[in-house]
Each structure stands twice: as structure tokens, then as C-alpha cells.
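Predict the 3D structure for this chain.
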Amino acid sequence: MKNNLALAGKSIVITGGTGVIGDSFIKSVCNAGASVGILGRNGKVAAQRASEIVKMGGIAIPLIADVTSEAQLIAARDKMLQAFGKIDGLVNAAGGNIPEAVIQPDQDIFKLNMAAIQEAMNLNLFGSILPTQVFGEAIKNNGRGSIVNISSVTAHLAVTKVLGYSLGKAAIDCYTQWFAVELAKRFGDKIRMNSIVPGFVLTEQNRTLLTNKDGSLTERGHLIINKTPFNRFGTAQELEGALVWLLSDESQFVTGSKITVDGGFSVYSGV
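Done. Predicted structure below.
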């Protein structure tokens, strides 16, 4: 495998490792020389991806867990430590929209599906906080490490329909800044937390909102492209550079920061 050594000798846990973006993250971290724990609920996919990494000369193991289950996360952490002896980094990539939480234009906004919105908040916010609590303890014991959260441009602009998702990601921004400060006060530059703010990347979760069955853009898809100066969606691979940099010692003086990778979406007024 290609190895630029930026993460050589490090052991990294990636939650959401069975998703589209998670797959790209796994490969980029392995290409940078790290050993990877692929954490997700789909054991078959996690095992398949770990096997593919090993066949290409990398080191990876599947970690089966729901990011909202402390017991499952603890078991995954113990497996990671048994395999590699330490944990140097955590990528909180698990998250996404909940279909039942999508708010349509003709829907009464005073009769929201509160259970679905709470589920979206639970997944996107506490699905990052809880893994940080569990795996962060091992990072603390290691004495050094980096934690990377995944935010979204929907945290910074009012993007229609996805209220629950947006609330969760806005809370991630607050959490990232708050926790980064507390880490710095306790551990100096030894343990850092930052986030990546992706623009619109096609995944299985948002594909039906942005594209039709024939692959053409929906009205919403067209609106997003028109608001993106690069005039296209991003790719998961275009997040890799920011991720590897934040996990590596090359970003040692960076904490509490948001690295935006959105093709200009968040800075363009539309005019």
C-alpha cells in the first residue's frame, strides 16, 4: 500500500467505518501508515473492509458497535487495545440524517416528529460524545492523541428539511470547541480535538434527497450545486487530506478548529 508515513505507528479508531465517507477515511488513514479499527453496526461490512485493507498490506480490524451503546463501545475499545496496545486517535464519523426527521415544505412545523428529531440529535451529537468518553480514556492513558469530529455546513446555514441533523451538527461545533479547551487546560498540546466541516458529498443517506433514480439532480440537488462555487458535489476522498493532517503531528498547534471542505458553499451568498 501507498504509505506517506504521516500516521506511521499510530492506531486509529474510525466510527461510522461501514459508511461511504467512513470507507474513504479508513483507506486514507491506512495509506498514511496507521493501524485502524473499523467501527460500525454492520459486522459483515466491517469485516470485509478490514480484510481488504489487510490484503493490500495494511493493518485493520473490525469493531462491531453502536455508537450510542456504552457497553458495546467499551467492548470495542478493549478489542482495539488487545490488538494494538494503544489508541492514538479517534475519528467520530458516525452520523447522518434520520428519514423520519426530514421536514417537508407542506408539513406543519408545529407538529414535528419529536422522537425522530431526538433520534437525529442522539446519533449526531451523543454518537460522538460517547465514543470520545470511551476511547478518549485510552488516548489519555496513552498520553498523546488527536480526536476529529465531523460537522457540516448545515450547522452554519439554515438548510431546509434537515432540522434534527442540523441541530446535532451545530452542537458538535460547540462540543468541539468546548472539549478542545478543556483538553488543552489539562493536557497541554498532548491531546487535541478538531472537526472537519464537509460540504455536500453524495452518500446513501442523502442520495434520494439530491438525485433522482436515473441519476439526475432533484430540485434540491440543483439548488445546492448553484450555491456551490465549484459547481459540483464533493467526494469523500476530498476530505482525506484534512483528516490525515488533523490526526498527524503536523497539526500539533491546532485545536478547537473547524476545517471547512465545501467547495465554497458556506462563503457564497448566491449572488
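DSSP finds eight helices and seven strands in the chain.
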